[in-house]
Amino acid sequence: MKEASDRLKTVLHRIEQACASAGRQTGEVSLLAVSKWHPAARVRLFHSLGVRSFGENQLQEALGKQQELTDLDIEWHFIGTIQSNKTRAIAENFQWVQSVDRQKILRRLAAQRPIQSKPLNICLQVNIDLEPQKGGVAPGEVLRLAELARDLDNIRLRGLMAIPRLTSNVEEQRQSFRKVRSLFEMLKNEGYDIDTLSMGMSADLEPAIAEGSTMVRIGTDLFGARES
Fold first, then answer.
1. Run of H or E residues at 198
2. Sign of dihedral through CA atoms 4, 9, 12, 14?
3. HEC states along 75-124?
């Protein structure tokens, strides 16, 4: 318990300090705890410490945890690559999907969202540095995908998500995050009612917050190394 509490305090302090350095309020940035590869017991522990939003990228692993944690008020985010044959289970069991990058997936999620559920919150994943090994829509295709999202029922477009290229150069990190923010602002200028800019992880949350992130996705710095 103490180790988890200390890890959470450290991450929250980093967010607070990054917001202060950027002239922003701490409440402008939310924490998504990335719980992939960690057991349901660890999710329950961090929930007891006040964390409410958890991100998973492996569907079957996530569904197993959800079954164990039905008694908790968890907001589940799917953040992994989406296969067409997995969209129904994702649409039925998550509140957010942050990794939408093509029209087919968007249409299937909208069609398969249970009508009795609230609209599915969607972030479009942007391959901001055009890395061939990564998922994400090309920057030039963001507006077209957003237009489709606006026209579909049962989903709500909330914003953009990105995983920039790996670099230890802070200015290069900021340049990538800045490009994502520019796309986000372009959509807002086009009249889209969006509020979420999901960018920044354990290694780069500070430059992400400096460039406008509203949600950071933290895994290792919260949960530690993967348990065997």
1. strand 196-198
2. negative
3. EEEECCCCCHHHHHHHHHHCCEEEEECCHHHHHHHHHHCCCCCCCEEEEE
Overall pTM > 0.70: yes
For 143-190, the pLDDT digits (tens) are: 999 999 999 999 999 999 999 998 889 899 999 999 999 999 999 999
**2-16+29-223 under CATH 3.40.50.1220, yes or no:** no
* Residue whose tokens read 């559920």: 117
Of 61, 24, 72, nearest in space to 39 by CA: 61
Residue 57 · residue 78 · CB < 8 Å:
yes
Closest by Cα among 185, 115, 108, 107 to 143: 185
Instruction: Share the mean pLDDT of the chain.
Output: 95
Tell me the one-letter amino acid at 156.
R
Structure tokens at 94: 């998550």
